[in-house]
Amino acid sequence: MRTKKKIIHILVTLSFLMTMLVPFATPALAISDNHISRIVTIDDQWNGDTLVDLVISEDGDYDTDFIDGDVFQLILPSDVNWNAGAAAVAGTGTAVIISDQILEVTVAGALPGADDTITVDMDIEIDGATGDIAVQVDPMDAAVSGGSYVFARVSGDSSIAKALSVETVGDPGVGGDIRIEESALGTLNEEDNLVADTDIQQIKLEMPNHFDWDCQEGGIVDPDALVTLSGGFSGLFVLDDLDANPARVVDSGEYDVLVDGENLTLVFNVPGVVRSQRGIITVDTPIDADNDADYGEVEVSITGTIADDADVIVADYADFGVKVTVDEVNEVKAGKFDQELATITIEEAVAGTLIQDRNITFEFPSWVKITRATVDDTNITVTPDAVLGDSNELDVNIAAASVGNEGTIDIDFEISVEGNKSGDIELTISGQKAGLAETKLVVAKAVSLVSATSAAAKDIKIGVQAQEISDITIVENIKEAISEAPNGTITGQITLTLPEGVKFAVKPTVEVLEGNLDIDEEGVALASSSDVDDRVTIPVDDSSSKISKIKVSGLKVTADRTVPAGDLFLKVGGGAIIENQKANRTADIDAGEFDTGTAVKVAVGTIVTPAPGEVQNTAVFKIGEAKFTMNGIEVAMDVAPYLKSDRTYMPLRFVAKAAGVADTNIMWNEADQSVVLIKGDRVVKLVIGSNNMLINGISFAMDVAPELVDPGRTMLPVRWVAQALGCDVQWDEATQSVTVK
Fold first, then answer.
1. Sign of CA dihedral 517, 522, 523, 529
2. 178 lies in a domain?
3. H/E run at residue 6
4. What is the pTM assigned to this prediction?
5. Burial group, residue 316, by CB count within 10 angstroms (0-12, 13-18, 19+)
6. Predicted confidence (pLDDT) per residue in 109-124, tens digit
7. pLDDT, tens digit (0-9, with 9 covering 90-100), for 474-512
8. Domain final position from 398, 414, 447
9. Structural domain span for residue 114
10. CB-facing half-sphere around the CA of 230: CA atoms within 13 A
């Protein structure tokens, strides 16, 4: 508690002391308002009026402070001198130069109640000074504010040159403007008249070897039009006859521009008066390159009688080339419609490269079809041919070439990729007549929708019934690769297809191992073509939202004698995977379709020749019935067997099938009404109406002859033909049937 009371006592005492320290109010000291009118840049040889004023004004609130006779001094740096003109001050005062650096000002004619002002011209001579120049105001005992005031900057250069831009040009072309400006007031100034062949005041701009100024006297672009004078040079006017009369005097305030090949010369005479602004010269750079000109930077060299030497790059001389790029290499789905590519851009290096009324051709691989193309052009006008969707090529016509600025063409494609293809999609862009060299560009990557694998391959013996083949696994490479509702009218199902001569013996088991693909397991079925169960169909009820895996097991097949030895491949396809197949053709969905309905093939076994006695192929025919059984399976015929002269006649095609002859090994010759059957190493030939049969070229006599019956079917004596092909034939009188083994 004592400590707190002590602190309070100290604070009260301090408060009292602070009150005692507050001074009585006194008048503020009188001061002047000082300023300079501008800051100028001058050269290191300057001698004259800078046109800058130092203004010293009486404070308006104290208009009696300036008193006649008060003296103050203006002091320059040691390397700057006052000129006599500075002593002629204006306003309320007089001045006298005390020394090279000191100007003394005396207040004279001050009026009470008036805001008196003294103005001093900064008329000086530079004597070695560089950088900022300031005048020091020493008030001495006068009512003037002291201070230091920068009024000039000294530059040792005559001129500053730069290119305002660097342009990409062809032949001809226009580079960036060149700007040449005085580094300080008067650095490009001459007071005397100049004669062209004696003391010419000039600036020369020289192009590199093999480059000329693209202009001519009296031409489309006149040299005088290339040069613009501004700032302190804006009052000069063009002479325009010095080229015709070189001895002509360039009078004060005149200029002319001369061009001779690679040289442009500006001849001018700035009036001999003091200027308040630095002069600026702007030069356009139209460029004409000859056949030997090198591609690359175009550098203009600047020299002259008064300008500083400089080299400025105004252009990049480029070949009339075209740059072709793609925004991104996208992945696209094989077997699907409407696959979008990233934007492909064609960009001119030089305006006018692409030639009007010529075509650019875009060509994809043969396994890609264009279904849509959208074009966006800038500074150039193009027109694409109509896209029908049945071609891998598109022509784009240059309707109007670019002028001034480079042209750009952006094209967006939608494509359809054949279902069994994958890998880089390389686009070839060509159009030499249009000014574009052939370019190859990978624009997308085709991804196969599914892959398939099998377990260890098993041997499949020719002629042996219902043999097991490997289980297969089908995996989506991307989600939703398998669709329950493909684009078009094709059904959403997976198909497994065997090659000719091989058929499925039983319906397999299908199950989804991974993912959420929904298949109709009960709807799995065998499908027939040419009366052979060579396909399994797997209906899809719902697409997957993540990659799925399917297993097909319990596969059994039978291979007939026509199947060659070697690997047995199973084809995986169907509308659920390959929607752009011809089977999907409708009035609305034609564009981008292919014959291919297979996505991938997988080896499921090896076809081998069985040991003797392993194969037993049995066919049973009945007289008068238009059907027969092959290994227990009923097969329909369009003509029934019949008896004639105690011989059984059967239709050619089915006799051959029973004997193990493939359809491709049955050859009919209309000219001589003959038929040839080939089985293994045996070639059998029969002629309608002839009792002679040839086996490997050797003639054998038959007791009956082949004949034709309605509707144009060839009927063969079964016993003779079957035995010629190495088959056993048995007749059952009771059942009126023939068995061929």
1. positive
2. yes
3. helix 2-21
4. 0.52
5. middle
6. 988 878 899 999 999 9
7. 999 998 899 888 887 788 899 999 998 888 888 999 999
8. 447
9. 32-155
10. 8
